[in-house]
Amino acid sequence: MLNLYHNSILIGTITDACANGFDMHGIINLLPSAEQYKPIFEYFQNQERPQTEEPPFEEHLLENWFIENEQNQRQEIGLPGIFDLDNRKHIMWRYF
Questions:
Q1: Chain centroid to CA 63
Q2: What band does 51 get if pLDDT is binned at 50, 70 and 90?
Q3: Does residue 28 register a pLDDT over 90?
Q4: What are the backbone angles phi and psi of residue 58, rounded to the nearest 5°?
Q5: Residue 39 sits in which domain range?
Q6: Is the pTM of this model over 0.85?
Q7: Which residues face 88 on adjacent strands?
Q8: Residue 9: which residues within 8 A CB-CB, separation 6 or more?
Q9: Rounded alpha-carbon distances, angstroms, from residue 64 to 7, 67, 78, 80, 86
Q10: Residue 33 in contact with residue 3, Cβ under 8 Å?
Q11: Alpha carbons 84 and 87: distance in angstroms, whole number
Q12: Per the structure, how many domains does the chain have?
């Protein structure tokens, strides 16, 4: 199992992680601490938003995302994509 963090805040736990090209994919169980980030995840999953539009979020919310492995080692990632599919929450991310 992996953990998703924003700075030091645990956002969720990830299972079934696997590579998908350059991206990683898994199933995420979001914790109550993820509630404040849901507008960000929804914004970036909106296929109808103009791609040239600047995100309406403070920059510090878009940076400092990490995946922690079973050995408690963290690796920085880009802002993850979190979306619903088949009645489950999925996550996609890329390591830096």
A1: 11
A2: confident
A3: yes
A4: -65, 145
A5: 2-93
A6: yes
A7: 85
A8: 33
A9: 5, 10, 8, 11, 29
A10: no
A11: 6
A12: 1
